[in-house]
Amino acid sequence: MAYSSSCLCSLLLALLLNVTNAQPLVPAFFIFGDSVVDVGNNNHKFSVVKANFPPYGRDFENHYPTGRFCNGKLATDFTADLLGFTSYPPAYLNLNTKGNNLLNGANFASAASGYYKHTAKLYNAIPLSQQLEYYKECQNKLVEVAGQKNASSIISDALYLVSAGTSDFIQNYYINPLLNKFYTIDRFSDTILQSYSDFIQSLHALGARRIGVTSLPPIGCLPGAITLFGSKSNECVAKLNSDAISFNKKLNTTSQKLKNMLPGLKLVIFDIYQPLYDLVTKHSQNGFFEARKGCCGTGLIETSILCNRKSIGTCANASEYVFWDSFHPTEAANKVLANNLVAAGVSLIS
């Protein structure tokens, strides 16, 4: 992904000022979505889609599994670091006392959630509609602890990140004959995009103005997707990647319409597809040893409960791998993705 020199200079200047003033670039950071950004909300759900056990978190702070689907930090954790926060937005459901600890934001994401409401229902995850209800509750708590004026300022100046869609395809559409026999891929994408549009409009109505949304990744390059849909090939599944590219084009078009329609909205689409595709297809040039397999177990299919302390074959050094389990990047890959997020999101924080 290429960025103009002026954008990069603005970013560096902003980060320099942040270090000098010891203040975050935005007052708060709110996160919605799926397992790519879940930091532990699913720990409290009766769901098999969890990551609150070893070896998840083995390279995180205190080597502790928090619920992150990673060996260490997520891309959003690195983003929070770059924005100048000294702590990460907490999993909303993990908080016993929801007061001052919400002043810098919160994370509402739930593994196996998506724009399509039935995806979350399949796995007893938290649908985006419920994540939005939790955010409304969070706003009320902010008013209680900060007062109406300060709360309104936090809400309007905060950064919002939405990461969803992958579960709708990988964990629902492609494996669900009730969907893929009834919907063409184009019709299903349009259905998802309508839900996306509704969600952004609802978030805007609640005061959000700086919103970043991740595109679909190259879903055909995820180790688990290659194992399930690759017809015994070790190459990325071209059809799945083509579907992702088509969806991302529609996502950009829909997002432009939203920006034209909603007053004061800053909306940026973060292209996750190309950076992750480059890491997979040019992994050695980017300092990685393995991109076909995840670090955990055989790396071909393990994720969530299949990636556990007894998984045979788990690698010793995850930093050499692009993927931690068969669907989620390692901390090392997330750091690369986070740099792209921040560089692409200059307009949101300036």
UniProtKB/TrEMBL annotation:
An example Pfam family from this entry, by short name, is: Lipase_GDSL
- Protein's UniProt keywords contain Signal: yes
Q: Would the keyword Signal be found if you checked this record's keyword annotation?
A: yes
A molecular function (GO) held by this record is: hydrolase activity, acting on ester bonds
What name is this protein filed under?
Answer: Zeta-carotene desaturase
Species source reads Vigna unguiculata (Cowpea)
Print the keywords alphabetically: Signal
Segments spanning the bilayer are none
Family, per the entry? Belongs to the 'GDSL' lipolytic enzyme family.
Q: Which InterPro entries match?
A: GDSL, GDSL_lipolytic_enzyme, SGNH_hydro_sf, SGNH_plant_lipase-like
Cleaved signal peptide residues: 1-22
